[in-house]
Design goal:
By secondary structure, the chain is of the alpha/beta class. It folds into 3 domains: 2-119, Response regulator (Rossmann fold); 142-371, tm_1862 like domain (pyruvate-formate lyase- activating enzyme); 376-428, OB fold (Dihydrolipoamide Acetyltransferase, E2P) (Beta Barrel), CATH 2.40.50.140. 36% of the residues lie in helices and 23% in strands. It contains 13 helices and 18 strands. The relative contact order is 0.08.
């Protein structure tokens, strides 16, 4: 059978799609283009925003119009939280955020007998970590390694704990084994990801923490870069920084979720820190990892966010000198406490604030790129782009060079000369 995938959302979804693709290839199936003609189409959904839900529904309709006889399988967070919205859309196989191997089995069965199958189990029930093959398909330089699933934080705006369930972790020994396997396969960088990796090991109640996992991974594959997914500010303390700053292969790029630079808003969001704690995390990172990149997410237009609160957020991201800020207008999610909060911000105001925040974010990113001019960076190159070869520095700055050589999956020293596109231009040294 020929399968095609459409993946929305975070790196965890990307990881799970890549894992399913690997399993299908091992079974002798083939992969095709989602916009082409295939036997089966898989939509791996996201539900972080209403727009994500809409994109999933549109993808289902598009496929069904193009190929009425195809098998359509839907999985992921939107399928988990709103299966009733998908049942009337002529979906053949429907599953939530667990049981990916059975999902593939049911897709193959549906192709044979056209029997509908659905299994969406309550995400609040106890779950075990579902270990799937790490890595990706051919021609990739960077591999995803999922080490954690679920979240126990229950931020008032977030639907993900209801979609993914509670924290569960990949055992340290298994993570190290996977990392060594990826290194042997030729990957030069491993991205450690999960829904909330700062909570890795929490459910074992034995003192296990993310610092221990990262120390083990960095030591196990010193020839491979280790890059981190999103972190909570509570993760960053003196002990964390001191232990990991000694590893040359830990990428000095840290994505610290902020969401708001106003303490009253953070409290209404049920975030587990205030701006003082966040700033201390940024200070420690800059002290122990000089020249590092600190990136973040910012939600604008949260219920009750005044103009003054919004201005506080803009001032705070400037104070932190963040290198990249992803801007999200607040999206109401049914079933979350924030959906019922008073003082909902009008859509037009949210959009205007998002545009203003994006302008500040662009200034910060430009300053980050300008500061790199004249420095020499170790760049892992990935692919050609419009006449230039593109790759990433350890701090995740995108770097372009002119080269007649094939540089894919090579690490080269590059002197940065000027800003270029969404990154910087340099020359091989």
């Amino acid at each position: 059978m020929k399968y095609a995938f459409y993946t929305l959302g975070c790196k965890v979804n990307q990881y799970e799609t890549q894992a399913m693709q690997q399993l299908l290839l091992q079974r002798g199936d083939t992969l095709g283009d989602f916009d082409g003609i295939c036997d089966c189409y898989v939509i791996n959904t996201c539900t972080v925003t209403a727009m994500s839900d809409k994109k999933s529904r549109n993808a289902i309709r598009r496929v069904r119009r193009r190929n009425p006889e195809a098998v359509i399988g839907v999985c992921g967070c939107y399928a988990q939280t709103a299966p009733e919205e998908l049942r009337g859309m002529d979906v053949d196989v429907l599953i939530g955020t667990d049981g990916r191997v059975e999902f593939l089995d049911r897709l193959a069965q549906a192709a044979r007998d056209r029997q509908h199958w659905e299994h969406v189990e309550d995400a609040g029930l106890p779950r075990r970590f579902e270990q799937l093959p790490a890595g990706g398909l051919a021609e990739r330089t960077r591999a995803l390694l999922k080490v954690e699933d679920g979240c126990n934080n229950f931020c008032t705006y977030c639907i993900i704990p209801y979609a993914r369930g509670r924290v569960r972790s990949l055992p340290l020994e298994s993570a190290v084994q996977e990392a060594r396997k990826l290194a042997a396969e030729g990957y030069r960088e491993i991205v450690v990801n999960g829904i909330e990796i700062s909570s890795w090991g929490w459910e074992w109640h034995d003192g296990s923490c993310l610092r221990q996992l990262l120390t083990a991974l960095c030591a196990a594959v010193p020839e491979v870069r280790i890059r981190l997914g999103s972190l909570e500010p509570r993760t960053i303390d003196e002990e964390f920084c001191r232990a990991l700053s000694g590893f040359q292969n830990l990428c000095p790029q840290f994505h610290l979720s902020l969401q708001s630079g106003s303490d009253p808003v953070l409290k209404r969001m049920n975030r587990k820190y205030d701006t003082a704690r966040y700033y201390e995390s940024v200070r420690l990172l800059n002290e122990y990892f000089p020249g590092c990149a600190v990136t973040t997410d910012l939600i604008v237009g949260f219920p009750g966010e005044s103009e003054a609160s919004f201005e506080e957020s803009l001032a705070f991201i400037r104070k932190c000198a963040l290198t990249k800020v992803h801007i999200f207008p607040y999206s109401r999610r049914e079933g979350t406490p924030a959906d019922k909060m008073p003082d909902q911000v009008p859509k037009a105001v949210k959009e205007a604030r998002a545009a203003r925040a994006a302008a500040v974010a662009a200034e910060l990113e430009d300053a980050f790129h300008s500061a790199l001019i004249g420095t020499v960076q170790e760049v892992l190159f990935e692919q050609p782009e419009d006449g230039l070869y593109a790759g990433h520095a350890p701090n995740y700055a995108k770097v372009y060079v002119r080269s007649d050589e094939a540089l894919r999956n090579r690490t080269c020293r590059v002197r940065i000369t000027e800003p270029c596109r969404e990154g910087v231009l340099g020359e091989l040294v």
